[in-house]
């Protein structure tokens, strides 16, 4: 593949991932804000996202297999189309329905959105491996870090967009506008990307998805605990703490979390510069994953300690959250590179699917624990749980092989 086709494919994949991420971030804030206004408890808010995460677990298992057999353009289009369906479903929500029916309906729509997210994510990440020549590992690290970092920046903008739209044009109109934008992007993907992108000659069985190498399995386990640790305090506990304890409006919460995720994305995109020139293997990236997750585990403990010492809650949480975002971004970028470095082009969609299945399981457990622990023990309980989960991730990362010697 020549450089122009490489770049054009990368830009289209990135644009699709960006567009989806904007709607995904905005939708999370729309749902969270809408139902928080209706008086839902923290645990009830967590339940609204339950099927979203459960479907992510299942989708990643079959999505990588479908991508290897039918091509990554198809799985990318499936992801974009299903998000349009989810937005359409939520636009039909009626406040006149019984509360139980509203919750069930939103959970179902979020389930469709969860499937959409993971089809889109695994397609985009796998496509980068296909587009980059096997001997250009430095380019691979830069491109995947840029894609992931820019995605998180856009997700932050999506958080702000969701809070802003909810406060201005309302719930339903916001959903319709986002669905129209995604339809345009899906048309672009159909016109530009080749149908055979990522399609392999080998006919893998569905069971092959869970037969990855030891390196992939260890990395996936570390990823599970890493994202469980993030979401155990970030998904429900933190937004509710900012509104109930610090007295912030939901628009202020959305704006702050947007800025946090934007900064997180920028750090993630710049991680290859922090890690040295990968092409010369000057940095043992597997070793770095262990070190950075160990450092990260200390930050929730520090925030907890400052709160116990009666340091101003706003300063303790906001400074701690900024530090957490920087270190977490570096850790996540290393993981995103490692899963591609441990894979060959034939198995990349299978390995990425398994890896993001673990990612989704971590988010699922973290989301449930976030609502439950906050309801039982407040932000303190969420922070201590995050520290313990990160320590486990660091221990698992110690077993990761150097990318120069790991089998694909």
What can you see in these coordinates?
With 408 residues, this protein is mainly alpha-helical. It has helices spanning 3-37, 42-48, 50-70, 72-91, 99-131, 137-168, 171-192, 214-234, 237-244, 250-275, 285-308, 313-341, 348-397. The model is unreliable at 277-283 (pLDDT under 50).
Which helices and strands, and how do they pair?
Elements: H1 3-37, H2 42-48, H3 50-70, H4 72-91, H5 99-131, H6 137-168, H7 171-192, H8 214-234, H9 237-244, H10 250-275, H11 285-308, H12 313-341, H13 348-397
Would you kindly provide a brief summary of this structure?
The chain is mainly alpha-helical and 408 residues long.
What's the end-to-end separation, in Å? Answer: 22 Å
- Number of helical segments? 13
Unreliable runs: 277-283
Just name the CATH architecture: Up-down Bundle
Radius of gyration: 20 Å
Strand content: under 5%
Name the descriptors.
408 residues, mainly alpha, Growth Hormone, Chain: A, 13 helices, globular
């Amino acid at each position: 593949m020549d450089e122009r086709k490489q770049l054009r494919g990368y830009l289209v994949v990135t644009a699709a991932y960006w567009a989806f991420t904007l709607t995904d971030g905005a939708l999370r804030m729309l749902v969270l804000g809408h139902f928080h206004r209706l008086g839902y408890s923290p645990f009830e808010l967590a339940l609204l996202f339950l099927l979203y995460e459960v479907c992510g677990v299942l989708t990643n298992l079959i999505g990588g297999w479908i991508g290897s057999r039918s091509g990554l353009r198809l799985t990318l289009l499936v992801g974009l189309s299903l998000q349009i369906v989810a937005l359409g479903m939520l636009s039909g929500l009626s406040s006149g329905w019984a509360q139980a029916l509203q919750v069930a309906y939103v959970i179902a729509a979020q389930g469709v959105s969860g499937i959409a997210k993971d089809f889109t994510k695994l397609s985009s990440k796998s496509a980068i491996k296909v587009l980059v020549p096997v001997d250009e590992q430095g380019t691979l690290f830069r491109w995947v870090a840029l894609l992931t970092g820019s995605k998180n920046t856009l997700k932050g903008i999506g958080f702000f967009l969701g809070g802003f739209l909810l406060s201005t044009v309302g719930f339903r109109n916001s959903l319709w506008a986002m669905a129209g934008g995604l339809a345009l992007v899906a048309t672009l993907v159909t016109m530009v990307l080749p149908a055979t992108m990522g399609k392999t000659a080998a006919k893998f069985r569905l069971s092959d998805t869970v037969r990855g190498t030891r390196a992939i399995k260890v990395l996936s386990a570390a990823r599970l605990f890493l994202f469980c640790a993030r979401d155990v305090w970030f998904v429900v506990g933190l937004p509710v703490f900012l509104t109930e304890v610090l007295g912030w409006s939901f628009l202020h919460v959305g704006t702050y979390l947007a800025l946090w995720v934007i900064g997180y994305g920028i750090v993630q995109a710049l991680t290859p510069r922090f890690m040295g020139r990968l092409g010369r293997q000057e940095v043992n990236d597997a070793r770095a994953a262990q070190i950075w997750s160990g450092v990260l585990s200390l930050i929730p403990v520090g925030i907890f300690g400052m709160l116990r010492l009666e340091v101003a809650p706003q300063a303790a949480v906001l400074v701690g959250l900024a530090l957490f975002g920087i270190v977490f971004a570096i850790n996540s970028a290393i993981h995103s590179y490692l899963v591609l470095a441990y894979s060959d082009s034939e198995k990349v969609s299978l390995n990425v699917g398994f890896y993001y299945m673990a990612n989704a399981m971590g988010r699922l457990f973290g989301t449930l624990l976030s609502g439950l622990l906050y309801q039982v023990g407040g932000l303190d309980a969420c922070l201590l749980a995050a520290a313990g989960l990160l320590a486990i991730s660091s221990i698992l990362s110690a077993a990761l092989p150097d990318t120069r010697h790991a089998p694909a």
